[in-house]
């Protein structure tokens, strides 16, 4: 299953912490400062969501290097949603305090009913209340999660729609090129050979496969799924050294190649396709 690598999911925000939160303390009796915190959080979330377009495009392009079937790519992109559900608490924790916290973390009081506009008395009361209870914390996280999901879903549809158009254009170009290829000279009718271009007897499968393209697709799969080479070798049932050689030379035993394709959730034919 494909997934955003950990460094590129919502946790990615730790590198983009809110600039006004130089320290977690602030004057809870300062109404203006409390309002600024709420407004700036919304602005920071908006800026973060702007980055999702490039992130989704990168993700889909890596999926296409693994498998060129659009339906397969669409199914894989749908699998990212469960992976993100547990990361919204981390988003708000980093945004508020520049670090993650324990699982039962409670949001600061100034976030109560965010992003609603609260009356001054209610806002100061929330700010002085310390931390929100579990239900109110969940409410804030739900709002943040929905905003990110809505933007991500929009970008996902946009990227996939563009991919469908591009694939259709590529197929049309290939179809137009087919008549040109048909004009190439062919062998005289009746001429046969008992050997393939590789010199192997016809009908006999080669013991090894050499495909630099397939090696690059495997590398893209490992990057896209955040899987280490050793871990993937264990899934395939081979050694780290064998995969390293395959990545370097594009050459591997046929049985191992078939196991690689299976572990990637594709077929050997799709993995070999130029």
Structural topology:
Elements lengths: L30 H20 L1 H15 L3 H9 L1 H5 L3 H10 L22 H9 L5 H49 L25 E3 L1 H14 L3 H8 L3 H10 L1 E3 H10 L4 H5 L2
Antiparallel strand pairs: 1-2
Q: What features would you describe in this structure?
A:
By secondary structure, the chain is mainly alpha-helical. The protein has two domains: 6-170, no CATH class; 208-272, 434 Repressor (Amino-terminal Domain). Helix content is 60%, strand content 2%. It has twelve helices and two strands, in the order H-H-H-H-H-H-H-E-H-H-H-E-H-H. Helix 2 (52-66) crosses helix 3, helix 2 packs across helix 7 (134-182) and helix 3 (70-78) packs antiparallel against helix 7. The radius of gyration is 27 Å and the shape is elongated. The chain starts with 30 loop residues before the first helix and ends with a helix.
Q: Concise description?
A:
It is built from 12 helices and 2 strands.
Task: For the structure shown, list the relevant keywords.
274 residues, mainly alpha, 434 Repressor (Amino-terminal Domain), 2 domains, two-stranded antiparallel ribbon, 12 helices, elongated
Uncertain residue ranges = 1-24, 189-204
Average pLDDT over all residues: 76
Q: Which of globular, elongated, flat, extended, rod-shaped describes the shape?
A: elongated
- Helices, by number, come to 12
Rg from alpha-carbon coordinates: 27 Å
Largest sheet descriptor: 2 strands, antiparallel
Count the beta strands.
Answer: 2
């Amino acid at each position: 299953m494909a997934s955003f690598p950990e460094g590129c999911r919502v946790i990615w925000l730790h590198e983009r912490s809110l600039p006004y939160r130089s320290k977690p303390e602030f004057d809870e009796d300062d109404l203006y400062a409390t309002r600024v915190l709420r407004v700036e959080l919304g602005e920071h979330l908006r800026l973060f969501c702007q980055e999702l377009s490039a992130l989704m495009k990168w993700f889909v392009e890596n999926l296409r290097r693994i498998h060129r079937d659009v339906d397969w790519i669409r199914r894989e992109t749908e699998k990212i949603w469960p992976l993100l559900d547990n990361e919204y608490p981390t988003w708000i924790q980093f945004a508020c305090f520049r670090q993650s916290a324990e699982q039962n973390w409670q949001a600061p009081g100034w976030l109560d009913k965010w992003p609603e506009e609260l009356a001054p008395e209610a806002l100061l009361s929330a700010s002085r209340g310390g931390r929100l209870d579990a239900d109110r914390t969940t409410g804030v996280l739900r709002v943040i999660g929905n905003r990110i999901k809505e933007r991500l879903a929009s970008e996902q549809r946009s990227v996939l729609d563009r991919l469908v158009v591009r694939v259709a254009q590529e197929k049309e170009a290939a179809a137009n090129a087919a008549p040109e290829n048909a004009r190439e000279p062919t062998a005289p009718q009746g001429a046969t050979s008992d050997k393939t271009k590789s010199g192997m007897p016809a009908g006999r499968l080669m013991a090894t496969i050499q495909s630099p393209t397939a090696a690059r697709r495997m590398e893209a799969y490992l990057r896209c799924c955040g899987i280490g080479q050793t871990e993937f070798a264990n899934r395939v049932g081979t050694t780290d050294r064998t995969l390293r050689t395959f990545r370097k030379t594009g050459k591997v035993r046929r049985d191992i190649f078939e196991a690689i394709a299976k572990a990637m959730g594709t077929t050997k034919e799709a993995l070999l396709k130029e």
